[in-house]
TrEMBL record:
GO cellular component, one term: cytosol
Name by which UniProt lists this protein: DNA polymerase IV
Assigned EC number: 2.7.7.7
Cofactor notes: Binds 2 magnesium ions per subunit.
Protein's cellular compartments: Cytoplasm
Listed InterPro entries: DNA/RNA_pol_sf, DNA_pol_Y-fam_lit_finger_sf, DNA_pol_Y-fam_little_finger, DNA_polymerase-Y, DNApol_IV, IMS_HHH_1, Rev_trsase/Diguanyl_cyclase, UmuC
GO terms for biological process, alphabetical: DNA repair; DNA-templated DNA replication; error-prone translesion synthesis; SOS response
Main location: cytoplasm
Function: Poorly processive, error-prone DNA polymerase involved in untargeted mutagenesis. Copies undamaged DNA at stalled replication forks, which arise in vivo from mismatched or misaligned primer ends. These misaligned primers can be extended by PolIV. Exhibits no 3'-5' exonuclease (proofreading) activity. May be involved in translesional synthesis, in conjunction with the beta clamp from PolIII.
Keywords: Cytoplasm, DNA damage, DNA repair, DNA replication, DNA-binding, DNA-directed DNA polymerase, Magnesium, Metal-binding, Mutator protein, Nucleotidyltransferase, Transferase
Site (Substrate discrimination): Y17
Length: 355
């Protein structure tokens, strides 16, 4: 890519959690491995490519995954190991770019416009990064290379696993035109269904729509969809991108009906979230409790404090107050979650006063 345009690489590790498990236990190689629990209410955290061939995907209920692939091999997650490997990967990134925007443990954007390593080509830089990752971690990564973040992200999926793809300047709209709308980063299942009802099935269909049409049907997201349909994304790689929330949730083996048990579980989740806040020194103002019922209907309750919540007991109390608002229960509870957010507004000035 010799254009003076911005040069962005999106690196995405291949089946990261599952690949780490297969690396560390050779007996798992070549087998359909999933990270998660086989329990009736378990959820798949990650699936190897062998498992994906059967239609098994992350976030899928374990019971569904087992129906698709009865020979699945379940392994428990080891977050400390995944974080350690992630740090190794990011050390490799730092040799090639100063502007690095992590999206998760296993993917990141790199702006290599400045050619920090003196490679001379963004395409070759991506190849070298992938080779270093394989050499130093024993894992494979895929890469997308383009002149903006959206296209780089989409390109990294083109030749997975262990491949890379380039969308050069001038090719963005043509590349996007051929893609099904469900492939678009940022288009979830609900938006995809709505677009299809409106006759938008591909990037080409999306590009035919006017800005006014997209704003009418998708509100604030309208300009974004209008831009990406034309291969336009002006967002810069943001090294200081802050985490917006931290949460924890649990799916229970049997539905919960007892109020005391539910409040106890919520307090335990709040304590777990606060441990992360304390470790990272990131304290938020807003607490959200999620309740998923036995019929899969979901409710959320949120409350904000006047300043940062820096006390574990207070976070637990607020979480319990929120969950009490759903009683009497409309049905048994299969999942509970607690999230803290609004970090930007958090301060360490004084104990929070509720508003």
């Amino acid at each position: 890519m010799e254009s003076p345009a911005r040069k962005i690489i999106h690196i995405d590790m291949d089946a990261f959690y599952a690949s780490v498990e297969q690396r560390d236990d050779p007996s798992l190689r070549g087998k359909p491995v999933v990270v998660g629990s086989p329990a009736a209410r378990g959820v798949i955290a990650a699936a190897s490519y062998e498992a994906r061939k059967f239609g098994v995907r992350s976030a899928m209920p374990s019971s569904t995954a087992l129906r698709k692939c009865p020979q699945l091999v379940f392994v428990p997650h080891r977050m400390d190991v995944y974080r350690s490997v992630s740090r190794q990967i990011h050390e490799v990134f730092a040799d090639y770019a100063d502007a690095i925007e992590p999206l998760s443990l296993d993917e990141a954007y790199l702006d290599v416009s400045g050619d920090k390593a003196g490679v001379g080509s963004a395409t070759e830089t991506a190849r070298l990064i992938r080779a270093r990752i394989r050499q130093e971690t024993g894992l494979t990564a895929s890469a997308g290379i383009s002149y903006n973040k959206f296209l780089a992200k989409m390109a990294s999926d083109q030749n997975k696993p262990d491949g890379q793809f380039v969308v050069a300047p001038g090719q963005g709209q043509a590349f996007v035109a051929s893609l099904p709308i469900g492939r678009f980063h940022g288009v979830g299942a609900v938006t995809e269904a709505k677009m299809k009802r409106l006759g938008v099935h591909t990037g080409e269909d999306l590009a035919r729509q006017s800005l006014a049409f997209l704003q009418q049907h998708f509100g604030k997201s309208g300009p974004w969809f209008h831009g990406i349909a034309r291969g336009v994304d002006e967002r810069a790689v943001n090294p200081s991108r802050e985490r917006k929330s931290s949460g924890s949730e649990t799916t229970f083996e049997t539905d919960l009906l007892d109020q005391v048990r539910i409040e106890t579980e919520v307090a335990a989740l709040a304590e777990k979230v606060f441990s992360w806040c304390q470790k990272t020194q990131a304290f938020g103002r807003t607490v959200t409790v999620k309740i998923k019922y036995a019929d899969f209907q979901q409710a959320t309750r949120a409350r904000s404090a006047a300043s940062a919540i820096e006390d574990s007991a207070l976070l637990q109390r607020l979480s319990q107050d929120l969950v009490r608002s759903v009683f009497p229960l409309r049905a048994g509870v299969r999942l509970l979650g607690v999230t803290v957010s609004n970090f930007e507004a958090a301060t360490r000035a004084q104990a929070p006063l509720l508003v």
